[in-house]
Amino acid sequence: MNQEQYLKNLTTPNEKIDVVLDTDAYNEIDDQFAISYMLRCTEKMHIKGLCAAPFFNGKASSPEDGMEKSYDEIIRLLTLAGREDLKSNVFKGARNYLVNEDTPAKSEAADFIAELAKDYFPEHPLYIVAIGAITNVASAILKNPAIKENCVIVWLGGHRIDIPYGAGEFNMTQDIAAARIVFGCGVPLVQLPCAGVVEQFATSRYELEYWLKGKNALCDYLCENTVREAETYAAGKPWTRPIWDVTAVAWLLNKDSRFMQDRLIPSPVPEYDRHYATQSDRHFIRYVYRIDRDALFADLFKRLAE
């Protein structure tokens, strides 16, 4: 791919695009909003597949358990959204993280992405939106290096580059090896950092209930799930909850910077000590540095309630 085409692929697409979503859907409550938002953007996105990503925390007994629960959560959301047609396009991801930067983790999700990418080319790329540990996507790159020519990756991962331990964010630190592959291979990459950037995209119980409650079964689930989660740690207190993952989908709709602002930066290097290393001669990535919270929530709530 020449430099002109590379930079073009780092701009928000104007045409309808083919998209794969890679998600640890059971990990938090925000993945569900991102999946639902994508399902409501049919004028812009043709969903080719949804992949379950591994995660490991208090909600899962292992990365494999997190992946299996995420797979089930994707199926649940498709039922609520009335998209039974997509269930055959849901794929199980890796059962563990990468053991090194040379060996892919086996999964049907990685095989699916690696094979699907063969149908695309720089002038007509496949867009991969990742909102969890990026194990499946990195494994697909190792299986099919042509992905760096034929795809654009939009990833919510890492923190803002200028804060201490910026590479210590949950999605990134779960599988630093995978992050290093994605940041280092030269694929057109859009990064949405968590702390310091997309954490601005937060909402409250009262806003959710006003805009979503009673609109449809999917909206009721999203509202109730978020309130129930927040009340486990903030009952009787004021709270807002970041709905981080929506922003990764929204970048694909960001014509004229309607939802966020971004810039080109040399690709940082996620280090195993949870810091970023910087090298001025690295290839460029697109880096989101500000979210227009109100504009994006207005579009999200409108689409979900339709």
Largest sheet: 8 strands, mixed
CATH architecture: Alpha-Beta Complex
Spans of at least 5 consecutive residues whose pLDDT stays below 50 are none
What spatial form do the alpha-carbon principal axes imply? Answer: globular
CATH overall fold name: Inosine-uridine Nucleoside N-ribohydrolase, Chain A
Number of strands: 12
- What helical percentage do the residues reach? 25-40%
Which H/E pattern describes the elements?
HEHEHEHEHHEHHEEHHEHEEEEH
Mean pLDDT figure? 97
Entry summary:
The protein has 306 residues and is α/β, with parallel strands linked by helices.
Reconstruct the topology from this structure.
Layout: H1 3-8, E1 17-23, H2 30-39, E2 45-52, H3 63-80, E3 90-92, H4 108-116, E4 126-130, H5 135-143, H6 147-150, E5 151-156, H7 170-174, H8 176-184, E6 189-192, E7 202-203, H9 205-211, H10 217-234, E8 241-242, H11 246-251, E9 260-266, E10 269-270, E11 276-277, E12 284-291, H12 293-305
Parallel strand pairs: 1-2, 1-4, 2-3, 4-5, 5-6, 6-12
Antiparallel strand pairs: 7-8, 9-12, 10-11
Helix pairs in contact: 4-5, 5-8
What does this structure look like?
- It is built from twelve helices and twelve strands.
- The protein is of the alpha/beta class and 306 residues long.
- The strands form three sheets. The protein has an eight-stranded mixed sheet with strand order 3-2-1-4-5-6-12-9, with helices on both faces.
- Strand 10 and strand 11 (276-277) form a beta hairpin.
- Helix 4 crosses helix 5 and helix 5 packs across helix 8.
- The N and C termini lie far apart (40 Å).
